[in-house]
Amino acid sequence: MSDNTVLIDLFDQGEFHEIMIMFHHSLVHDNPILANSVAEFIFRWTDDTSLDPEDVGEAEVTIIRHLTEQLIKADEVRFSKKKCPLAQEYEYLISTEIH
Length: 99
Hints:
- This protein has 4 helices and no strands.
- By secondary structure, the chain is mainly α.
- The longest helix is centred in the C-terminal third of the chain and has 23 residues, at 58-80.
- It is globular and about 40 Å long.
- The two termini are 17 Å apart.
């Protein structure tokens, strides 16, 4: 099992894990599938208006902010290399229907 698969599974589980604070943008520069898993994790926790504020503590908010910043940095690096944003590249993948 590759490291990317482990990371994708970690984010797809939908639960916070302290290791997420160590996530670095370089992991997704050329991995739109992993970037999508991270983005979906963030959306899962930020778009759900039914969440009890007690479900998301300071540590979880810190992780969400960190992950968001890392995705932004990854797109900045990609832009500097004249590549499209990760979300756009993900849409171009033939396999997106199975993710």
